[in-house]
Specification:
The chain is mainly alpha-helical. The protein contains 11 helices and no strands. It has a domain of about 100 residues. About 85% of the residues lie in helices and about 0% in strands. Helix 4 packs across helix 6 and helix 10 runs antiparallel to helix 11. The N and C termini lie far apart (about 65 Å). It comes from Pseudomonas reinekei.
Length: about 300
């Protein structure tokens, strides 16, 4: 890649960025006008507004809507509002473009004489496209694990409230208001469910929808028992106790599996680091004596 082509590509990239910034600025001003007409205060973070504008564009929405797994991961992570989905869509579009531009710039400046100049930008484009989704999957999996751990604490608290004479909705409201420090993720989801219930929807159906969105087996089983308690009015206390014992058994099994894997990993570490040192200590004097005997 000669310097003239590199300079022209950089000028084209700079012009494209300037044009894109002008378009985003116009959209931002239009959005601020709409927010003022609605009586809302516009946000002051310009970067967040640019990301939201990029994610709300047709390209950003198509990059998210074409993949069903991305929708499932966003629901599991709790990103269900249009703003958060637009921010992820902006990252899904912007990270590959940024990786492509950086790789082309670095290659043009430091490695201008490569035989195939398109290989590195192609790899950078692919990695930039896959990286946001992989990070999203890791964050969603981590949130699901935390929610599964919180269920083990949620069920005894729920049984205590039921034994005190509260109904299902009253118990969920008490936990959503008083358990923010103890159950941060679960109380957030319960507040969303109760908000939709306050708007006139049915509690059992909203619990079913929340269990499908979160895709956590422990929460799904709990919602099934709560739906049974809502429809039948009783007889679910033994089911909650059985579910608590089942979750404890699952957790114990996972811990035993983790410990067994950890022992195998520690065996490998011992073989790599401890065994050579032990061999030197035990066999070192004998090898030294043999070397002196052969030398004499």
């Amino acid at each position: 890649m000669n310097p003239s082509m590199l300079l022209s590509s950089l000028l084209f990239l700079l012009a494209s960025l300037m044009l894109f910034s002008v378009v985003l600025e116009l959209r931002r001003r239009a959005r601020q006008v709409v927010q003022r007409l609605d009586g809302k205060t516009p946000a002051d973070n310009r970067l967040s507004q640019w990301l939201q504008a990029l994610g709300s564009s047709r390209v950003g929405q198509q990059s998210v809507s074409l993949d069903n797994e991305t929708q499932t991961l966003l629901n599991a992570l709790g990103w269900r509002t249009a703003r958060k989905r637009a921010i992820f869509a902006a990252c899904q579009v912007g990270v590959p473009v940024l990786a492509l531009a950086l790789s082309a710039l670095v290659q043009g400046l430091f490695f201008p004489q490569v035989a195939n100049p398109w290989i590195v930008p192609a790899f950078a484009l692919g990695i930039g496209y896959l990286l946001p989704k992989r990070l999203l999957a890791a964050a969603a999996h981590q949130r699901q694990k935390k929610l599964a751990i919180e269920i083990s604490t949620f069920i005894p608290l729920l049984r205590i409230l039921f034994e005190s004479g509260m109904a299902v909705e009253q118990s969920l409201r008490v936990l959503s208001n008083e358990g923010k420090q103890l159950l941060p993720i679960l109380t957030h989801e319960l507040r969303l469910v109760l908000t939709r219930v306050d708007s006139g929807l049915e509690l059992a159906e909203e619990l079913n929808v929340a269990s499908r969105l979160l895709a956590v087996d422990e929460f799904t089983d709990t919602c099934v028992i709560l739906q049974q308690l809502i429809h039948q009015g009783g007889g679910a206390m033994k089911s909650l106790l059985a579910l608590k014992l089942l979750l404890d058994d699952r957790r114990l099994t996972r811990l035993q599996e983790y410990i067994s894997k950890m022992s195998a990993k520690m065996s490998v570490v011992m073989m790599l680091f401890l065994f050579p040192a032990l061999l030197i200590v035990l066999a070192g004097p004998g090898l030294t004596a043999l070397a002196r005997a052969f030398a004499s």
